Structures are given as C-alpha cells and as structure tokens.
Amino acid sequence: MSESRPERRKTRRRASDVVAPATVADPRSDGDRAADHAAIDRLASDVLPALMAKLGATGLGEIEVREGPWKVRLRRPAPGPNYGRRASDRPSRTQPGHAGHGHAPGAFEGHRPARGATGGGGSHDHSTNGSGPVGTPVRAADTPEPGHPERRRGDPDPHRAVATAPAVGIFRPRGESKVGTRVREGDRLAAVDVLGVPQEVLAPADGVVGATLVEGGEAVEYGQELIVIERITSPVAGGGDRAREPA
Amino acid sequence: MFRKVLIANRGEIALRILRACRELGMESVVAYSEADRESLPVQLADEAICIGPADAKRSYLSAPAVISAAIVTGCEAIHPGYGFLSEDDSFAEVVRAHDLVFIGPPSDVLERFASKEGTRRLLASHGLPTIPGSRGLLGDDADALDEAERIGYPVLIKPSAGGGGKGMRMVRSPRELETAIKICRSEAKAAFGDDSLYLEKWLEDNRHVEVQVAIDRYGQGVHLGERDCSVQRRHQKILEEAPTPALSEEARRRLCESAVRAAVAAGYENVGTLEFLVDRDGNAYFIEINCRIQVEHPVTEALTGIDMVRTQIRIAAGEPLGFSQADVQLRGHAIEFRINAEDPEHDFRPSAGVVERYLVPGGPGIRMDSHVFAGYEVPPYYDSLLGKLIVWGPDRATAIARARGALDELLIDGLVTNIPIHQALLTSEPFLEGRMTTNLLDRVGSASFLAAATRS
Fold first, then answer.
1. Which of A124, A164, A220 to mutate to test the interface with B (most CBs of B within 10 A)?
2. Is the pTM of this model over 0.90?
3. Deepest in the core among A26, B178, B224, B440, taking most CB within 10 A?
C-alpha cells in the first residue's frame, strides 16, 4: 500500500507503527541533517497527533500520510483475544451465511459523533433531527472481555463450542483450523480480514476441531459460526495431550 | 446509478431507503446490529448483513464494519441515512478511498461545512445574515465583557467545539457572564477537550425555519421550500410543517432564494438543509447546515411531489439534477408528527418493550413512515423514534383536521408514546394560530401543556 499520496489527510490502510523516513539513511550534509530533524520534529509534534485523532475518529486499523520524502504510518494495536458465545440460533437472510453469535474484540471502537448525530447541535434554539443514537448502553452479557481467556456466561454445550466471527469481513483459515487439530481455548484458529486488517478467531474451548463451516475467502458477517470445536469431555486413556482437562 | 447499495442505518429511515432503492431498480443490503436482527428493514431486505453488536459504536458507527460489509456484499455505494455516520467527513473520505460512493455530499464538502463557526462565516460571506456575535473566539474575561456589551444582553455563551448544550449558557448581565464563563470553559474543556468560547446574541421567542436545497455536482441548484420546525422539546423537533405560518409568501420566497444562492456559491453539493432562526420581527438568521437527508424530509415530499431520497441518490451518482426551480411547485400544507416511544407524562422518558397492537391511519393525504409492526420489540439502545405520521391537506386547516383524525386512529399498544402531546398541540391556541415558538413547550413544561390541553 505505498502508492504516493502527496496531499495530507489521505487515509491509507496498511502500515507499521513507526515514524520513519521513506529514504534510507545515507551520507548527508549537516544542513540536510538539520532539515531532516526539523521534519521529524514537525511530523512527531504536528502530524502524528492529527493522525492519531483521525485513526480514532475513523476506527480504521491503519493510516498513512506522506509529505515529500517523509511518511507517517500508524497502526492500531492488535485486538486482544476474544471468544464466541452461544446465543439463539436463527438463520440469517444474508448471503454470507449463518446466524451470528459471539462478540467482536474491542478493536474498532473509535468514532466521532457526526454533527447532528447526538442531538443538541449547539445553537440555543435550533434543534437537531432526533436521529442517531441517544446513548448506547451495552448489556453486561454482551460486553466482551478483551484479552481475558474466559468464556462468558450462558450454558455451554457440553459437547461442542463454536468459534464465531469477531467482525464482518473475509474468512482466512489457518493450519490450526484443520479438522482433527487439537486446540486449547484461546488458540488462534483463523482470522477475519476487515479492510486488510486481520481480526483473530480464537478457540472458544479446549478440544478438537470438528468442522469448518466456511470456506477460506468467503465473506462472513459479525457473529457468524465459523469453526466447531468438539469438546474433550472425559479424560481419554493414553491421551496425555495438552488439551485434556485436569480431573 | 448504482447496481447495489448498502444501507447503513436502522429503523424507519432504513426502510425508506430500501423502498427508494427498489423503486430505482437497485439491489440493496441492510447492514444491521445484533439488536436489530428482527427488525422490519432486515425482514424486508433483499439481503441483510450483521455488522456488529447492539452498541452503535461497534456497529452503525463503526466505519470499518460498515465499509467491510459493503465490500464483502459487492455494493457500490453506502447510504448512511441520518445520524450515525451521515455527516462524518472522515467516514466519507474512507468510503471513497475504498472506491465506494458515499450517498451524501463528497467528503471535502462535508469537511468544509464541518465547523459551525466556519460555516457561518462562509455563508455570511455569500450573503446570509447570521446572528450578531463576538468577533471570533473570546480572549480573557475583559474581552468577553467588552464583546457582550457591544452585542447587547442577553447573550448566549457557546463552545467552539461540539454541541448538545454542553458549555452553553444564556446570561443577562455582566455579573452573570463572569460567573457563567468559568463554568462554560470547564464544561467545554471536559466535554470536547477545547475550552474556546464565543458569544451570540440571544433571541427570544424565535422560530426555527429551515430551507431544503438540492444541488448537483455541476452547480445546478434549487430550493424545495422551507419547513417550520418550531415545535420542539428541549431542542428536539417533534413536529414540522410547511409552509411556515411565520412568514409571508414573499418573505418565504426571498429566504429560500437567498439560501440556495449562498449554498451554491459556497460549493455545497447534494441535498441539504439550511437552518435559520426567525425572530419576532421576521428577521431570519442563518445558524447551520445539515448535510444529510433529514427526518422531516417527507414534509417537503408532500408539498413538492419530489422524492428527496431518490434525488439524493441520483446526485451522489453524478447525475444532473434534471429539473429547475420553475419545476418545483409547492402545493398545499403538510405536517409531520414524530411518534416517539417516550412518556410525555413522565418527562418523556424513553419506553422500550413489545408493540402489542399496531394500527395505521389512512385516508386522503395520510402517510405513515414507520418500521413498527405488531410483535416488534423496541430495543433500548437507540433513539426513540417509532415512526412519522405525515399529513397533507390543500390548506393548513384541512391538514390539521385530517391530522386530528389520523392521530385518533393511530394505535400503538404495549408502549407509551408521545401521541398525546401531538393531540394537545392540535388543540392549543398558539399552534392553531400558527404562533408557536421554539420555547412553546419548554416555557410551561410539557406536563402542564398536556394537562391544560386535556382540561379544555
């Protein structure tokens, strides 16, 4: 993702989280060096905060700005692990597949309320349209606990658990999602590609991969069931494997 | 035009856009949150895709979720509806960067009009009168006192960033100003991270009148008349009508013409609304522009016969407007009633629950835009709008008579709604005489207003 974008404020969506010159360091005159340092200072103190705000505002995963020979790229930290959770079954009407359960990681939370989106508007006697959210409470049961390898409440199926899509995007399986693979809760099984940024699909329980419900490259919606994990319910003789539950 | 459009909104506006797409022969995909899985737009959609959990920040307000949904379903354009991401220039820019079309003004236009203060200066430079106020942002307290003296009390202290009434105070004297300015600064700092303030003259007993414009990419623009949205409760519109009873036909024409002229000159594109305050003497002051389709667009549709959503989509697709000012004929009188799930007797607190019975009124000039059905469970996460009753008549008196009947017929069981406040309005003298101002309900309090109407 490196085609040149001369103006500022053009968003890109691939990058690393560093501030670095596009040109490799080479013998430079003191004057050039001073100019580069000045540019770095400016990028760090002026462009970077603006970019961070923009990244927060758009909720994008990555952003890049170029200016002359310099560029600044910013990437959000990868989301923490997160687990699917059983919910009620209902076939979806959508072409990408089955009904959704589960919960996304708190990866894309940034938003800037659009003008008019939150009411009030700001003039003493004009109103806004009564549109958009008026506070968006989240049910406690729906709140994921990013980074914490614990299944959430609800009666788990004693025999199987299903890993669900953490976001809407393209399904990318890994080797770990092959049928028969032993997995532990929290293992990375696959990813869902959201605008080029992978969102991890994690094993919701210890067990064996029983089935992959979606082909690689297919579109999936948020909460869609992706990979069935057959739980290991009783200690198997001679098992000794890492997935076995302690008695 | 587009082959396929993603509808990134919910409720009645998602349904409205869905219908417009059908009419235009375009496929559509409804993007929904988990809380809206059973909603009518999802049920009626050609295709629907879940984009996130109930929390709007992770669904309807999530740019990556919305754009990703558009890409994986093969859409060419995104309709944001109103609220949510509809006026977010960053979102519009990212949509474009992914080779999709944002149905609304282009991102650079949204950006140009993103600051209220900047927009006011821009449109003032194109001939629109604005409310007298401080020259730029306030310096120290002495500067604030000088500026207030120059403008004349009462004045309104306003934060430069944000909205929603935070950091906003009306003051009537220098002493009040000195106290209030400190509070406003700290409120603004806390809410928006920016404590810069400015002053505006406070206008009492004013009316809210807005002008609908449609401007294509080629600079061809028309106005579609105005709407009077003076009936409000705490800055929230609850009833809109057109034409405004506040202005003469000549004054309305002048206002609308100056609005579209300024918007074209300032480079606005697509449908938009220029909001004005009209004072007791009929002077109109520009306050802001809404860069989206508005909740009350059906009022204009009823008067002009022009489909606003269709017009919006066509302009976004790069088509010329296709009609001129002479083609816009305003006929009769229209009133829209916002039907909200809120309890007028208990300070309009939102009510959630299951709609048990739902009966829609009918007859000449009646239109109901709603996503409600019997058995629908109103989720607690979003705004309380259940639908909009739009009534048209050849004149205001007929429209009001039809509205009375329609409100009586409208039945929404299982939830508390604000229908009684509308019925009360239709018996109140200020409304019947067309003298309503933006403080009509708040001055006496909605509860007293309601009680007075039931007694009469």
1. A124
2. no
3. B224
